[in-house]
Structures are given as C-alpha cells and as structure tokens.
Design goal:
The chain has helices spanning about 80-85, 105-110, 150-160, 175, 180-195, 210-215, 245-250, 265-275, 300-310, 315-320, 320-325; strands spanning about 10-20, 25-30, 35-40, 50-55, 60, 65-70, 90-100, 120-125, 165-170, 200-205, 220-225, 255, 345-350, 355, 365, 370-375, 380. By secondary structure, it is α/β, with parallel strands linked by helices. The strands form three sheets. Strands 1, 2, 3, 4, 5, 13, 16 and 17 form an eight-stranded mixed beta sheet that branches. The chain has a seven-stranded parallel beta sheet with strand order 6-7-8-9-10-11-12. A two-stranded antiparallel ribbon has the order 14-15. Bound molecules: zinc ion.
Length: about 400
C-alpha cells in the first residue's frame, strides 16, 4: 500500500476487488506514465485524468498467456493478439515458436512492434517455425526433416537480434518431430543454454516418449500441453498415476504449462494430477487460428476450467499472472503493485450453467466463469475493435476435437 501522489495519475480504476501480491483488497489502482503508481484505499486515491468504475469486479494484473500463436500473415495459425486482448484481458502474449530462425525478424517487425500488447517471442528450433502447420491436404511436421533443426542458424539469429529471443521452443511429438528427437533435442538444450533462456518443450503423441524428453528439461524450463491425452506422451502412467519422472521434474523446478489448444487437453488427466498434488504452473491457452472461434476463444476458457476443477480463485489468478511472468524473468509483469507495468484486466466472476468439452469429448460442468470488462496495457485502455479479418480457420483433422468455431459461449 502506498500514500497518494499529490500530482495525480493518468488512469484510476475505482471500487474493485484488487488482486495484489498480498491477496485481495478492496482498493483503487492508479497508473501514471505506463506504470502502477498507487494501490490503496479508495479514500486515499490520487486524483486522475480518467477514471473507470470496477464495482463488483476483480481488478487483476494483465493476464500472461505463456503459449500463443500470434504470427499472423506468416503462419496460418497466427491470430491478432490485440483483438483477443481487448476482449479477454491478456496483455502479455508469449509466441510459442511460431517463428524460426529464418522467419524471426518478421515476427519482431510485423507483429511485436505493431502490437499494443506485449509480444514475447520464443524461437522454434525449426528454421521455418510453424509455417507448415495447418496445411489443408496433408500434415507436415516442421522437423520431420531434421535438416531444419539448425543450431548454428539459431545462434546467428541470436547474434543478429541480441536479447530478442526470450525462449526456445520444440514440439516433441510425432506429428512435429517424427523420430528425430535424438538429433533435435540436444540442439534445443544447447540453444537454450547458449542464450540463457527457458526451453519450452511441447509433448504429445510419441515418439518421442515423455520419459525420453524429460531429461532435457531443467529448472525454469517449461513442459507444455502437460494434460494432453495422447499415447506415449501422457504424464499419467500405466498404473493410472502421475509418472514418478514427472514428479521428479517438477521437484527440480520444471514448470508444467497447460497449453490447452484443440487436441491437447484431457480433463481426466488434470483431475488425476490435481488429486496427486501435481499443479500446472501456468494456465496457458495455446490459442491460434484453429481454436480462437472455439473451443478456446481466450485464456479465460482455461481459467474457467480450473475453477470448475476446484482450484481456488487466487490460485487461478496467480497461475495466470505472476507465475507465467516469472518464467520470463519479468518481475514487473503479473503483479499489481507500485512500480509494476500498468497492465490490468478487469474481470467479473459470474454464474453459468454451460459445459466445457476437452479433446477427448469429456464434458465438464461449469458453475461460474470469468467475464471480461476491461483491458489496460501500459496505462492505456485497449478497447474492442473489429479489423474485418476472420480469425478462425478450420482444419480437417481438428474439427474432430471440437474446433467447430463455436462452443456456445459468447462471453469469451
Ligand atoms: Zn502451440
């Protein structure tokens, strides 16, 4: 808590239930020059040029989605992050390997530098990134030809664009990698070590098996699609329990990331993991053009799911803000306190009776869900807009997982 500034703030958010690092507080939030200036009692709040009333709503740090695809125009998967941010409160978007060393500059120039939200690039170990994904006539993995895994090209990109690569990404499943894990994963490990950034590994259908993948991950690295249902890569073993190797990885500091996506989420895997005390560190969406129309729509869908699975509200918020920000070593993101970035989401939690479906067709009853009210990035309100571009793009092999463009919920 802070004393009011006599000079006032640019934007003040009044009367909300504020999610601070110390828990919930009925408070006002003031932002000046793009940074949080004040969090404290309404009566002590500084005067402001612009005010917003958050009565009846939660005021939380701008959401941090650790797994998204926003390289629109270069990969068929890409969506416009500002457009979804304006209706969801997600202010930090980690682009999880849509670009590779051969296409990285375009992500900086054409997306990151032109977006109002914060776009954080993780570089794919494939030179072409995810350009092959979403091809309509056949599936082609970006690393089925291991020649596309070129460590030297990654290191050269890091030299050409110093400090711009914030993580290394590999999709370690048969549809992406074929049987090239032994060639690709050591290079990915070396790239992350050379750059001093986290390694994010996607898991799915084997090969490679999860047990083959886990030794490549260290403290601060990320295992994404942690609750997927596919054979050979599931965190649940043949005995129906979380594999000991997964628990060992978590114990050494490997972070589990949800990366819901279309084909990568099983409620039952999550229920078993939560039952054994194995928690996802970050509630990311894996939002892209093939699920933005449903079943994902935004990261709020993933947060709704964890409320329904019994995760306490403060935990859901922490794993959507501070914890994913910590993967990025960004202490100024994901926290509502003086000095932090002026990124805020105003969200209401409202009753609902709708169902949510996972990749296996399992349906989960929701009793409450998040409803977006306002997005603020760097102290500026990001208002919803329509750029006329249709974001959703169907794929023949994804419709079977429920990527129909509509899940019956218009709020997300
Ligand atoms: Zn993804």
């Amino acid at each position: 808590m802070n004393t009011p500034e006599p000079t006032g703030v640019d934007l003040r958010i009044d009367n909300g239930r504020v999610f601070t690092p110390d828990g919930f507080a009925d408070a006002a939030v003031g932002i000046r020059d793009g940074r949080i200036e004040f969090v404290g009692a309404q009566a002590d709040a500084p005067r402001a040029r612009e005010t917003v009333d958050a009565e009846g709503a939660l005021v939380v740090p701008g959401l941090v989605d650790l797994h998204t695809h926003v390289y629109l125009g270069s990969a068929r998967l890409g969506i416009n992050p500002d457009k979804t941010a304006a209706r969801s409160g997600v202010t930090t978007w980690v682009d999880a390997g849509t670009s590779g060393a051969g296409t990285f500059e375009g992500l900086l120039m054409h997306v990151r530098d032109r977006s109002r939200v914060r776009v954080v690039p993780f570089l794919n170990m494939s030179f072409v990134g995810l350009a092959p994904a979403g091809m309509l006539t056949r599936e082609i993995g970006e690393l089925w030809d291991p020649a596309f895994a070129d460590l030297r090209a990654v290191l050269r990109a890091a030299e050409e664009f110093p400090d711009e690569i914030k993580g290394i990404k590999v999709r370690a499943s048969s549809n992406a990698l074929g049987d090239n894990a032994a060639i690709v994963l050591p290079q990915a490990r070396e790239a992350a070590d050379e750059l001093g950034v986290p390694l994010m590994i996607h898991i799915g259908m084997a090969p490679p098996t999860l047990v083959e993948i886990l030794p490549y991950l260290r403290a601060g690295d990320v295992l994404t699609h942690c609750f997927h249902p596919h054979a050979g890569g599931r965190i649940i073993g043949a005995d129906g329990r979380v594999r000991p190797e997964v628990k060992e990885a978590v114990a050494r500091g490997v972070r589990l990331d949800v990366g819901h996506g279309v084909a990568s989420m099983s409620h039952q895997v999550a229920i078993q993991a939560l039952d054994e005390g194995v928690q996802p560190d970050s509630l990311s969406s894996d939002i892209h053009a093939e699920n933005v129309g449903g079943p994902i729509k935004s990261m709020l869908t993933v947060m709704d799911m964890f409320l329904a699975l019994g995760m306490p509200l403060d935990d859901v918020l922490d794993r959507s803000t501070r914890r994913p920000a910590s993967v990025l070593s960004r202490a100024d993101l994901g926290r509502l306190e003086p000095g932090a970035a002026g990124d805020v989401a105003v969200l209401a939690v409202e009753a609902t009776d709708r169902w949510k479906q996972d990749s296996t067709g399992h349906r989960l009853q929701l009793t409450q869900h998040f409803v977006h009210r306002l997005t603020v990035v760097g102290g500026q309100v990001l208002a919803p807009f329509d750029d006329g571009r249709e974001e959703f793009r169907s794929s023949p092999w994804l419709t079977k997982f429920g990527a129909t463009g509509d899940d019956g919920d218009d709020n997300h």
